[in-house]
């Protein structure tokens, strides 16, 4: 019989080893899958994981693209990690991302074709507000009506998708676009564009915002009272209430931050890499960011690495499709396996895995050990 | 208000058909959540079931074998979730999302080469004179077997949860796993069984899509139905009867939207497409306001259990 | 610039991940798809075109593709990666890839790009599309004859010119042979959702529709028509497998001849940027074999219509035609110009209901 027992404290050794172990397991399972599909496993895995980084023809382009792809994931995941640590579940970041993009773009397009340095900042502000306000719907309902925030935020994603389609076909449709859906090219309008700030790095304002968010989140958890409250609320809700942490306030705050950051990610994407609001503007960054947040163990720096790894599988996956002829489905399955293995082996850093029956002494010792860890 | 010229018999019939996959998947997830586990991977289990079901049905020529394998496919993916969240203590939200990602890819691999191939489909029971009842007869008593299976499953889940000892234990595990553990109930085994059941039901729901409702395979064909099932569980306040109502509401809203358009009633399409979600939110709020004192969610929903902690 | 120099230098190196080929390098052609190759419709047909290209040019060509590429930022990256990996010719097969294609093409003057259904061209970017409305006119003609209830159901995706043009063309042809014909249009706001498409077909059938046309990509409406014992027309592909008795004919997008021709031109150095809009005459729009359910004389008149369109004698949009609100659009004998057709955002007179928005 296999048992898992909590460790007194997360093992530092395993903390460092588990991601490597997970990647190794994914490579092994992936190799089997590719072999079963009749593709050379070596070539497939090399194309996915190494070529975007090291191939001489591609690396100069792919490395900056990793940042571009990872930035919205990291920005959203950082926001989500606050709530997740406090046990507050915003699953609808995708909706907040979409509404932020639509509201920000609408604010800018209302002023088209003015050229002013103030337009881009205004759009960014409206993007942030859009995401924040959309997040307030589940937050206020949770805080004051105790409505399940997971479901409300998730349901609002579908509402937001319809809002985007409506906006792209209606009010935001490019009047000079010959009747085709989609807004004007924001990235081609200087006052509204979010360009690459330093040529060849891929870094646009969204990347800058993501890096800022990482540092701020780190400082929040390391130093601020709020960071302490958040962790306390997540780990010991009752103790948090005794300590004067107001659950409604915390819910509203966590949703405001995660919604605002998701909205920012949306408007940076709409003015930069995507360049416009189209019918299918949403490509699931909000959902992928949830995975990224957990892969990064809700730790700001972990999230950066997880975001980059996720971006690598996307970019490498595209390469593998065109270079080795692997179907997209196999790439999705590989991403799923990577996630399973990372989540699965994480047990090793938090728990001890033992064979045999529990001895009474262990069972008695465990609660005390767990308390000591907190 | 224009006179809406609808064929109500056909509309009712269509509500039953459209709501069946929602109902099956939602009943499965209902049991899972009642046991205190939140599995967001319904969409992934559903589409895996859809793919497994049609591949087997086409290969064997038997839709029933297809349904069996659809259930097994969903169950298999459910067991992966169980292994990770119950055995290895991984986070349920992230694991569920991963399950969906994996399922979408895995199903497309599984059903490669079956795109657009018509599947053998199933008939229904002969309910004799009931079929001749005006309006309701043809709508309610001339459906396929799985529609009735779904209704029976709602009854069965209700009986199980509220009329059997095992169901009582399952709910106890969901409401307070530490207390249940202290009483000697096997928390983890109960949850694994619930997850397996949820997976099988989601798989069946997927099989219904590929074997009855569409009936053929195309990549990504669940198109969000699994997420709707999750919404319905909450809409139903974790009660089988209300989950049935919720499935009808969602199915009904979808069916009505299309029928209004087909009847040339001018409708704002985006508004109608989002209406079931808005209605569910409104209902959710109403439920939670009425039960200010705690809401209906199982108390341990989504929380990990570790023995002895 | 750095990217470009690297790309140039790299082109001289042997391609590490590719099978080494002796002698002349084959022409490398890439395809970017918006959906899965298993969609059974739009993307499937582009992929059939790719396979036909491989067949036709044999060892002289090597093709690659990336499927389900989201429009927007991801598309631009994928196209750029294709350009960087030594592709000579890249087909981007969805309207939403237009700006991404234009942006990448600016940076890679030596790579040839072909964008489907768009309008932005450059020295190294050509555009191509098919006059699907010609096929729609033929199926509209058949539908007008075949309907007994006088009601024709139309499952539409998004209210964009391409789709509206198809509805108008089909309606004009149907009402010409059957002045009382009514169109019921259902907008789904998706290109691809088999369950919803099947439901939409059933909803239309309940309303007394006995002929179904679709401008969405799955075979589900055809299956629903088969089940209900009515008739329907396939979209993008021959859908006879899904509706062996229901399918009267299908509009087939046949990209193969175009892909082969353009690839050969790139190989021979004769390619120039063009706006190609081809129809039945050139074989880009094909009709699946007419079903035996269509009466002999209707088969003949439909074939005559198709032949007339192919010969340039008949234009599906020939006046007098008024817009839905009654204002005149085309005078007697006048035919629509391509620009109006390309941006069509109104129904013609006789169609009931409003275009959403």
TrEMBL record, chain A:
It is a multi-pass membrane protein. It comes from the Bacteria. The chain crosses the membrane at residues 70-88, 95-112, 118-141, 150-169, 203-221, 250-268, 274-294, 301-317, 329-349. The keyword Ribonucleoprotein does not apply. InterPro entries: ABC_transp_permease. Keywords: Cell membrane, Membrane, Transmembrane, Transmembrane helix. It comes from Hasllibacter halocynthiae. One of its GO terms (molecular function) is transmembrane transporter activity. GO terms for cellular component: plasma membrane. This is Nucleoside ABC transporter membrane protein.
Automatic annotation (TrEMBL), chain B:
GO terms for molecular function: transmembrane transporter activity. CDD domains: TM_PBP1_transp_TpRbsC_like (cd06580). It is found in: Cell membrane. The chain crosses the membrane at residues 6-25, 37-58, 64-84, 96-115, 145-162, 192-211, 217-236, 272-289. Keywords: Cell membrane, Membrane, Transmembrane, Transmembrane helix. It comes from the Bacteria. InterPro entries: ABC_transp_permease (IPR001851). The keyword Transcription regulation does not apply. It is a multi-pass membrane protein. Its main location: membrane. One of its GO terms (cellular component) is plasma membrane. This is Nucleoside ABC transporter membrane protein.
UniProtKB/TrEMBL annotation, chain C:
Residues 1-21 form the signal peptide. It holds the Pfam family Bmp. CDD domains: PBP1_BMP-like. One of its GO terms (cellular component) is plasma membrane. It comes from the Bacteria. Keywords: Signal. Residues 28-289 form the ABC transporter substrate-binding protein PnrA-like domain. InterPro entries: ABC-Purine-Binding, Peripla_BP_I, PnrA-like. This is Nucleoside-binding protein. It comes from Hasllibacter halocynthiae.
């Amino acid at each position: 019989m296999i048992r898992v027992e909590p460790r007194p404290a997360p093992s530092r050794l395993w903390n460092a080893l588990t991601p490597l172990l997970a990647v190794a397991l994914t490579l092994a399972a992936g190799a089997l899958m590719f072999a079963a599909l009749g593709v050379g496993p070596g070539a497939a895995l090399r194309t996915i994981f190494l070529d975007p980084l090291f191939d001489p023809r591609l690396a100069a382009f792919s490395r900056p693209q990793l940042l571009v792809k990872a930035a919205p994931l990291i920005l959203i995941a950082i926001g989500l990690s606050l709530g997740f640590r406090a046990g507050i579940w915003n699953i609808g970041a995708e909706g907040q991302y979409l509404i932020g993009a639509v509201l920000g773009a609408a604010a800018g397009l209302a002023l088209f074709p003015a050229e002013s340095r103030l337009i881009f900042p205004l759009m960014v502000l409206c993007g942030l507000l859009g995401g924040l306000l959309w997040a307030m719907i589940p937050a206020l309902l949770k805080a004051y009506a105790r409505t399940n925030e997971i479901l409300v935020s998730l349901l609002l994603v579908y509402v937001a998708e319809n809002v985007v389609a409506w906006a792209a076909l209606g009010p935001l449709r490019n009047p000079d676009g010959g009747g085709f859906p989609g807004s004007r090219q924001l990235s081609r309008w200087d006052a509204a564009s979010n360009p690459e700030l330093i040529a060849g790095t891929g870094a646009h304002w969204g990347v800058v915002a993501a890096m800022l968010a990482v540092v701020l989140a780190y400082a929040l958890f390391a130093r601020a009272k709020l960071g302490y409250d958040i962790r306390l609320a997540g780990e010991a809700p009752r103790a948090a209430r005794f300590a004067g942490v107001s659950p409604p306030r915390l819910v509203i705050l966590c949703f405001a931050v995660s919604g605002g950051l998701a909205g920012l990610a949306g408007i940076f994407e709409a003015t930069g890499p995507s360049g416009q609001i189209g019918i299918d503007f949403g490509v699931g960054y909000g959902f992928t960011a949830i995975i990224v947040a957990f892969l990064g163990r809700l730790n700001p720096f972990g999230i950066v690495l997880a975001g980059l790894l996720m971006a690598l599988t996307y970019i490498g996956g595209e390469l593998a499709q065109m270079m080795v002829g692997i179907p997209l489905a196999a790439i999705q399955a590989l991403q799923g396996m990577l996630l399973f293995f990372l989540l699965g082996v994480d047990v090793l850093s938090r728990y001890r895995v033992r064979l045999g029956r529990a001895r009474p002494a262990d069972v008695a010792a465990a609660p005390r050990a767990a308390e000591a860890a907190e | 208000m224009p006179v809406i010229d609808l064929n109500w018999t056909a509309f009712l019939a269509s509500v039953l058909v459209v709501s069946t996959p929602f109902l099956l998947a939602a009943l499965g997830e209902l049991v899972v959540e009642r046991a205190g586990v939140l599995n967001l991977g319904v969409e992934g289990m559903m589409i895996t079931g859809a793919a497994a079901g049609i591949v087997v049905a086409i290969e064997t020529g038997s839709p029933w074998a297809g349904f069996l394998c659809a259930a097994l496919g969903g169950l298999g993916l459910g067991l992966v979730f169980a292994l990770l969240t119950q055995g290895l203590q991984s986070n349920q939200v992230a694991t569920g999302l991963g399950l969906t990602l994996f399922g979408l890819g895995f199903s497309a691999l599984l059903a490669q080469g079956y795109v657009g191939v018509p599947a053998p489909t199933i008939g229904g029971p002969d309910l004799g004179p009931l079929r001749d009842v005006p309006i309701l007869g043809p709508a309610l008593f001339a459906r396929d077997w799985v529609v009735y299976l779904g209704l029976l499953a709602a009854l069965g889940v209700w009986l199980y949860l509220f009329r059997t000892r095992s169901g009582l234990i399952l709910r106890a595990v969901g409401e307070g796993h530490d207390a249940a553990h202290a009483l000697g109930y096997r928390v983890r085994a109960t949850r694994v069984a619930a997850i397996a059941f949820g997976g099988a039901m989601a798989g069946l729901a997927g099989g219904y899509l590929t074997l009855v409702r569409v009936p053929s395979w195309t990549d990504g064909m669940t198109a969000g139905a699994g997420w709707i099932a999750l919404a319905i569980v909450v809409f139903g306040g974790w009660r089988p009867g209300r989950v049935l109502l919720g499935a009808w509401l969602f199915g009904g809203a979808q069916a009505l939207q299309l029928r209004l358009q087909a009847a040339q009633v001018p409708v704002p399409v985006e508004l109608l497409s989002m209406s079931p979600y808005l209605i569910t939110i409104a209902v959710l709020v109403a439920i939670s306001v009425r039960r200010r004192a705690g809401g209906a969610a199982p108390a341990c929903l989504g929380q990990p259990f570790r023995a002895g902690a | 610039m750095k990217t470009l120099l690297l790309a140039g230098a790299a082109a001289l190196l042997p391609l590490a991940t590719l099978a080494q080929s002796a002698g002349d390098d084959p022409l490398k052609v890439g395809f970017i798809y918006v959906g899965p190759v298993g969609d059974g419709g739009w993307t499937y047909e582009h992929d059939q075109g790719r396979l036909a290209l491989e067949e036709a040019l044999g060892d002289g060509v090597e093709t690659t593709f990336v499927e389900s590429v989201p429009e927007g930022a991801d598309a631009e990256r994928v196209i750029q990666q294709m350009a960087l990996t030594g592709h000579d010719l890249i087909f981007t097969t969805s309207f939403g890839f237009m700006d991404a294609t234009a942006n990448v093409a600016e940076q890679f003057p030596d790579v040839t790009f072909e964008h489907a259904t768009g309008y932005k061209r450059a020295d190294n970017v050509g555009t191509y599309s098919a006059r699907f409305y010609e096929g729609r006119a033929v199926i509209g003609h058949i539908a007008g004859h075949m309907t007994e209830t006088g009601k024709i159901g139309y499952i539409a995706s998004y209210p964009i010119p391409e789709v509206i043009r198809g509805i108008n063309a089909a309606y004009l042809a149907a009402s010409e042979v059957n002045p009382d014909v009514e169109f019921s249009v259902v907008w789904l706001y998706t290109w691809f959702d088999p369950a919803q498409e099947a439901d939409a077909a059933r909803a239309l059938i309940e309303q007394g529709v006995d002929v179904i046309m679709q401008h969405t990509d799955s075979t589900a409406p055809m299956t629903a028509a088969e089940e209900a014992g009515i008739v329907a027309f396939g979209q993008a592909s021959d859908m006879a497998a899904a509706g062996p008795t229901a399918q009267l004919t299908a509009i087939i997008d046949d990209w193969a001849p175009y892909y082969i021709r353009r690839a050969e031109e790139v190989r021979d150095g004769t390619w120039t940027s063009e706006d190609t809009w081809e129809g039945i005459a050139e074989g880009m729009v094909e009709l699946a074999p007419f079903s035996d359910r269509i009466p002999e004389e209707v088969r003949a008149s439909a074939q005559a219509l198709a032949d007339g369109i192919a010969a340039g004698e008949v234009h599906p949009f020939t006046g007098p035609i008024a817009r839905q609100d009654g204002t005149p659009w085309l005078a007697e004998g006048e035919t629509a110009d391509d620009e109006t057709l390309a941006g069509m955002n109104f129904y013609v007179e006789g169609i009931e209901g409003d275009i959403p928005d």
